[in-house]
Amino acid sequence: MNTQRVKVRRIVEQTPEIRSFELVPCDGSSVSFTPGDHIDVHAGKDLIRQYSLWNGPDDRDAYQIGVKREENGRGGSAAMHTLKEGDEIEVSLPRNNFELRSDDGPVILIAGGIGITPVLSMARHLQAMNRKCVLHLFARSDEHLPFKNELAALDEVPIHLGLVPPELDAVLTRILSNPPKDARLYFCGPGPFMDLIENLAKTCGWSSDRVHLERFSVEADSLDLDGESFELVLQQSGVTLTIAEGQTIIEAMEAAGLEPMTSCEQGVCGTCLTTVLEGEPDHRDLYLNPAEKDSGTLIMPCVSRCKGKKLVLDL
């Protein structure tokens, strides 16, 4: 994977938990991105994490990311919060799993907490294009509201603070009800918040092809890693492994002394995306779209398995 060296130019305390980072390419080059993009940040040895860009259309000299410190996380956010201005790190080139479509219909954006980052970038681009959009932002309190300066520059940003069920359900239902046929919905935030919006969108009559979301992580107890053992052949490596019940492909590879490229280990980031050469994958991820899953040619080995007895991968 191609990487580039960047310097931390500026760090801003957005909230007690969220810091924003301006990352400037050390070679002086400008940055190229699209709204919804993210970058892989090499935060330490064998520690790669994905962070969405919140850049506006004119922010071409630095990558702008936001990082929420997760007290019970896997180390990435803690490592990022130790960075100082002037430090240098490696990042990937931007890539997009949360693309802003180019049609002209109205857009509803919904964000919760740190989920604001990709959605903020979308809002800034849409406003620059004079496209009709509204960004609904949900946060615990005003103290936990990030990017206030950037939000103030947007035309329509209803702020919803401290809502709990059933009030939250009622507000979201009001936002999602009676959608125009040409409208699109984009949302990002904590898992339960995302699940609620996804379910309410269906109830309110949104067509699935007009609903777009990005998950930063999934709840640990929602990961389905069960399944029967199967034979795994790594074509390039010339290695054959037995994947045990409850063991992931990535775990088996690491146990065999291999070093697969991986990051989230939850099937959401796309880092471990691999080509299937033979066998039928049993998809457990949230990264591939339905068409990609139906093709049977790709797999996320951090969570997905094999429906048969043998799987051959291009690794």
TrEMBL record:
GO molecular function: 2 iron, 2 sulfur cluster binding; metal ion binding; methyltransferase activity; oxidoreductase activity
Any one GO biological process: methylation
Domain FAD-binding FR-type: 1-101
PROSITE patterns to which the protein is assigned, alphabetical: 2FE2S_FER_1, 2FE2S_FER_2, FAD_FR
Domain (2Fe-2S ferredoxin-type): residue spans on this chain: 228-315
CDD domains: fer2, PDR_like
Keywords noted in UniProt: 2Fe-2S, Flavoprotein, Iron, Iron-sulfur, Metal-binding, Methyltransferase, Oxidoreductase, Transferase
Superkingdom, natural source: Bacteria
SUPFAM superfamilies listed in its UniProt record: 2Fe-2S ferredoxin-like, Ferredoxin reductase-like, C-terminal NADP-linked domain, Riboflavin synthase domain-like
InterPro entries, A to Z: 2Fe-2S_ferredoxin-like_sf (IPR036010), 2Fe-2S_ferredoxin-type (IPR001041), 2Fe2S_fd_BS (IPR006058), Beta-grasp_dom_sf (IPR012675), Cbr1-like_FAD-bd_dom (IPR008333), FAD-bd_FR_type (IPR017927), FNR_nucleotide-bd (IPR039261), MRET (IPR050415)
Pfam families listed in its UniProt record: FAD_binding_6, Fer2, NAD_binding_1
Name of protein: Vanillate O-demethylase ferredoxin subunit
Species name: Pseudooceanicola nitratireducens
Taxonomic lineage from the root: Bacteria, Pseudomonadati, Pseudomonadota, Alphaproteobacteria, Rhodobacterales
